[in-house]
Specification:
76% helix; homodimer; 2 domains; Tetracycline Repressor, domain 2; globular; DNA-binding; Arc Repressor Mutant, subunit A; mainly alpha
Chain lengths: 206, 206
DNA sequence: TATAAATGTAAACAATTGGTTACTTGATTT
DNA sequence: AAATCAAGTAACCAATTGTTTACATTTATA
């Protein structure tokens, strides 16, 4: 049966279109008209369901964070030895950024705006708390197994794992110009991933 | 003598105001009127000297790159042993990002726009070529001194040195929320710098 | 089945935007 | 000192923007 009305699908379409629009053009550059056109809904519906452009952005960035944290939990890193778990996490983080370039763009936008949309989001804070705990448990296990150094700060390790992927991909356009090579060709990408794994493993090894 | 007209100072004021405006609000979010007000010049002067908002942005981002590359050259890393040279470079990069947060924001904006303003800038490419050469020479020296591993890719090393500082500072707002600590308090900043030096030195060591 | 609530459309609005026009004032040159 | 050009001002414009108003239609419910 073909329903002529479908509020859930309308909301989903708006959110998906908004995510791409905000990621491509930033918060200021994004156009509500364009979001409506891509989502194939009347512009009025955006205000009906999401109140304002600003609030729509808030929901988009919140969902983006919850999505990546959820994907990380699915890795089931508890079942691996510490070294494999850490390598898996580095690989995952890289691949996630590579497959979801919108995530990086959205995080940049949110930081340009001093994270004002995320400030009130308890859910995102909790999801991240679990994530830091996960990395801490890998570190503990690595120490017990005699593989990792003691006293490594899990937050700084987390940040570095993200950083070495994020920066490369975020700055792929300026990078490809100033380094005079295509940073996005598959050979360069593979090489970078291996480089990153090496960086992290050397950092934690005894 | 007080000159009522001073084109050089007018241009300088416009460029300085534009740099801050673009860094704070991005290319789309920046307002030509605001740049004119901050620079204390008539809006007409911006178009007189810089043609368009877009072209003004181009000059701002070009100058930003030339400035950092120039500052790096002043470090005179050739006179240091390889390990000290590399540590100095990591410290410098961190401090430069810390003291010039506009640089990070501008690079983000340029990447959001697929680096279209930098594409035609021969000068920036040349400046960066010198920079990669500098890092390569440090690596060579380190190998000769028996301190560094062989075959380290200078471009990926460069990218990683930048990444570990850039990401932390770029995402300081979202980071302070999701990690539930002020990433910008001086203790956290010192700790991060030491962490980064350790990361790079462990990466290159034999 | 009548009715109210939810879902949707079209058009318009007030404010803002990058950019321009028409004009004035100061400095330099011959 | 006249003339010419560069530097500067104020007001305005057409286009675009996020948001709203007024209205129509579908769906669920009493």
């Amino acid at each position: 049966m073909s329903r002529t009305r479908d509020p859930e699908s309308t909301k989903r379409n708006i959110l998906a279109a908004a995510k791409m629009e905000f990621a491509t053009k930033g918060l200021s550059g994004a156009r509500v008209d364009d979001i409506a056109n891509v989502a194939k809904v009347n512009k009025r519906m955006i205000y009906h369901y999401f109140e304002s452009k600003e609030n729509l952005f808030k929901l988009v960035i919140e969902k983006a964070y919850l999505d990546i944290r959820e994907a990380e939990l699915k890795l089931n890193l508890e079942h691996l030895d510490a070294k494999s778990a850490l390598e898996t996490l580095v690989r995952f983080t890289w691949k996630y950024y590579l497959d979801n370039p919108e995530f990086i763009r959205l995080v940049n936008s949110e930081n340009l705006h001093h994270a004002r949309h995320l400030k009130t989001s308890k859910e995102v804070v909790q999801a991240n708390r679990n994530y830091v705990g996960l990395v801490q448990s890998i570190l503990d296990r690595g120490v017990r197994e005699g593989e990792f150094r003691d006293q490594i700060d899990p937050v700084n390790l987390n940040i570095t794992i993200a950083a070495i992927g994020y920066y490369y991909l975020n700055n792929r356009f300026t990078g490809s110009i100033i380094f005079e090579q295509d940073l996005m060709d598959s050979e360069a990408l593979d090489k970078r991933l291996e480089f990153n794994i090496e960086t992290i493993l050397k950092l934690v090894s005894r």
